[in-house]
């Protein structure tokens, strides 16, 4: 269940690869504890970037127990979530969405997205951010839902 209250079945693979690359901060092909700490630390307070929370995220997805989340493990976690069922796995993209949604309104707005892009090292003017929001099916005033963010990341 995403923050907007809607359910989804699976996320298209192209969206998963884009999401994986966003979380793999050092670009080494695997998500590490440090990658998640860097990602979450840029957006939230200590409660989300705590060692316990990040350690739990890695533990849930790290099926081969090597301390990293490779793409195949990442894909299994996200595609393993079936509509209407909660299987105890952490939805990494849903978590990323919640982190970007600083005001907690269930949408990533203009300032939320612009802040994220800046943190991630992407230069984006206001017009670029507005275009991304429109691409995700949102409007300039309300922002985009979780599904809209997945559309933006797929580009």
UniProtKB/TrEMBL annotation:
One Gene Ontology term, aspect cellular component: organelle
Occurrences of domain EF-hand (ranges): 11-46, 49-84, 88-123
Keyword Calcium tagged: yes
Repeat as UniProt keyword: yes
Pfam families: EF-hand_7
InterPro entries linked: Centrin_CML-like, EF-hand-dom_pair, EF_Hand_1_Ca_BS, EF_hand_dom
Stated name of the protein: Calcium-binding protein CP1
Organism: Sesamum angustifolium
Taxonomy of the source species: Eukaryota, Viridiplantae, Streptophyta, Embryophyta, Tracheophyta
């Amino acid at each position: 269940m995403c923050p907007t209250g809607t359910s989804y079945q699976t996320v298209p693979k192209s969206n998963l690869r884009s999401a994986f690359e966003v979380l793999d901060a050092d670009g080494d092909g695997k998500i590490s504890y440090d990658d998640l700490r860097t990602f979450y630390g840029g957006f939230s307070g200590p409660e989300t970037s705590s060692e316990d929370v990040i350690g739990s995220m890695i533990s849930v997805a790290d099926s081969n127990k090597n301390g990293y989340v490779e793409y195949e493990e990442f894909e299994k976690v996200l595609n393993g979530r079936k509509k209407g069922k909660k299987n105890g796995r952490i939805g990494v993209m849903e978590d990323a969405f919640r982190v970007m949604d600083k005001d907690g309104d269930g949408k990533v707005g203009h300032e939320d997205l612009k802040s994220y892009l800046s943190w991630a090292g992407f230069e984006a003017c206001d017009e670029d951010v507005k275009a991304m929001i429109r691409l995700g099916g949102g409007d300039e005033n309300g922002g985009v839902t979780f599904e809209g963010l997945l559309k933006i990341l797929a580009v």
